[in-house]
Amino acid sequence: MSIYESKNNNKLLDEALSIFMHGSKTSLLSFLNKLVTTSEAEEIAQEAYLKLYLLVKNKPSHHNYAELLQGLRPMLTLIAKNLALSAIRHKKVEDRYAESQLTLHSQVTAAECQVERNAEEQAITDNENCRLIVVINRLPPICRQVFIQRKLYGKSHQQIANILNISTKTVENHLTKGLVLCRKYMFEQLPSKHDEHVMSAKRMSKAAR
């Protein structure tokens, strides 16, 4: 095949693919949105079209690309589905890793809280740290991951968005939600007036000995 014929075939293929995408993208995105988020669906769809394009391009010369692409529409759906499932599996692995890191951090902090402190101020600080860990563990999974990445690891909104494959706006929403829930949960853990009186009486009794 001459260079001219090759360029002409590429042009025909590009035009056919553009028309094919226009007619199939809406239904493909609708299918993918049932499996992944909107932003993930868009990225997966683009990758699926690219794979289909390369598949057709590597085939022997075929002048009716529009007909060929229509015939490969079920394959496009299959490619997109496999990509979506792969993305889901990858995300689950990341979620499990984040959960394991949080659990490890919680266990270490909880163990440290069991160590007897000589200074009462240090004991109070440890207790507050333990309460904070308990509070963070109560947050919804994605909200918890965003909160940990931001508050414990100091990641930027964009870095968190890249790690979790979500938008920066979603990151901001989860951080706001996390702060609200943390305040709520911390308030719930505050001792009641009765408990405060009991603790105060115990401290006074201990001091009198």
Q: Biggest sheet, open or closed, and with what strands and sense?
A: none
Can you give the mean pLDDT?
77
* Shape, per Cα inertia axes: elongated
The CATH homologous superfamily of the largest domain: Winged helix-like DNA-binding domain superfamily/Winged helix DNA-binding domain
- Helix and strand run: HHHHHHHHH
CATH class of the largest domain: Mainly Alpha
Q: So how many helices?
A: 9
Overall radius of gyration = 28 Å
Keywords: DNA-binding, Sigma factor, Transcription, Transcription regulation
Protein name: RNA polymerase sigma-70 factor, ECF subfamily
Pfam family, one: Sigma70_r4_2
Domain RNA polymerase sigma factor 70 region 4 type: 133-180
Write the layout of secondary structure elements.
Elements: H1 3-32, H2 38-57, H3 65-71, H4 73-114, H5 120-137, H6 141-151, H7 157-164, H8 168-189, H9 193-208
InterPro entries: RNA_pol_sigma-70-like (IPR039425), RNA_pol_sigma-70_dom (IPR014284), RNA_pol_sigma70_r4_t2 (IPR013249), RNA_pol_sigma_r2 (IPR013325), RNA_pol_sigma_r3/r4-like (IPR013324), WH-like_DNA-bd_sf (IPR036388)
Pfam family, one: Sigma70_r4_2
Keywords: DNA-binding, Sigma factor, Transcription, Transcription regulation
